[in-house]
Amino acid sequence: MISQPASVFIIVFTTINIVACLWLMWWTARTRVSSSDTKQSPAEGVGTTGHVWDGDLEELNNPLPRWWLGLFILTVLFGAAYLIFYPGLGNFRGTMGWTSVGQHEAQVALQRARFEAQVASLKDLSLRELANNGSAMATAKNLFGANCAGCHGSDARGARGFPNLTDNDWLWGGDEQRLLESIAQGRHGMMPALGSALGETGVNEVASYVVSLSGGKAPADWVSAGEQRFAMLCAACHGADAKGNQMLGAPNLTDNIWLHGGDFDSVRATITNGRDNQMPAHQELLGDTKVKLLAAYVLSLNEAEKHAAN
User: Fold this and answer.
1) Could you give the angle at the alpha carbon of 201 between the alpha carbons of 195 and 203, nearest 5°?
2) Which end of the chain is more exposed for a tag (fewer CB within 10 A), N or C?
3) Checking phi first, is residue 55 left (phi over 0); if not, alpha (psi -120 to 50) or beta?
């Protein structure tokens, strides 16, 4: 919806242009002979524009061919009829009530209904059963490529800031129900910025302790001091043992699997500035069946990784 002045301007401007086109066609359709600039060609009986090249090459003032003029008129009439039936004149919606949003929603609903009909036999299967169904996983793989690969990668191994979905390390839990919730409802994980609370020295100490938890090297005095600060500020989310809390989406800091990097500088930046990650909800976009297929596909990737490791 645009402002009323803008709508009026568009309507007036468009109408003037349509009328101007009709007038121009009428004006150019006539055979015109002016006494000052044109003359009558005795041989042709047609007016000329008065322009002469090479001494005897004259420009005739012929009207537009009737068939060509008719096509122009039909085009203008078609445009005028379109603007009556469909939106195009400012805020006037057209007598058909058509909108691009409405058509898109209708097409999405139709496509979803067709898809639901194709996978009707799969609806009652559990995620484990779907994960072992080759046909279902072929469909799910295409869904993953279209909706998830942009962030998690085509191989689902993620990237910095985007979780690896094949390694059995889950911020919010990897059981069937938690997978469904993550895809359907989305997740919003936030690590608060602690730089102002800890100061530069405190940040260095906590970062050293966190790096040491997964086997990294750091000064012993910093690690010792950082452990105490960690217990006061970080254990509430990550746990006293730093193994995380899936109910809060707080990561395990002891397993050497890092979403934003596990080197000292990356950990220090995370503690100083915090992190804000969001997994978008897909329930409304995809519907129940597609969400279920995607959850089963992620589950199948995880199972395949386990078998490969063994």
Assistant:
1) 40
2) C
3) left
For 281-298, how does the pLDDT look when each residue is reduced to its tens digit (9 = 90+)?
A: 999 989 899 999 999 999
Q: Which of 76, 70, 87, 77 is CA-nearest to residue 10?
A: 87
Q: Are residues 291 and 158 in the same domain?
A: yes
3-state secondary structure of 98: coil
92 and 155, same domain (yes or no): no
For residue 110, tell me if it sits in a domain. no
Beta strands in the chain (DSSP E): 48-53, 57-60, 187-191, 275-279
Q: Which amino acid is at 79?
A: G
Residue 267 sits in a domain whose CATH number is 1.10.760.10
Q: Write down the pTM of the prediction.
A: 0.69
146 and 273 in a single domain? The answer is no
Which structural domain, as residue segments, surrounds residue 17?
1-32+58-98
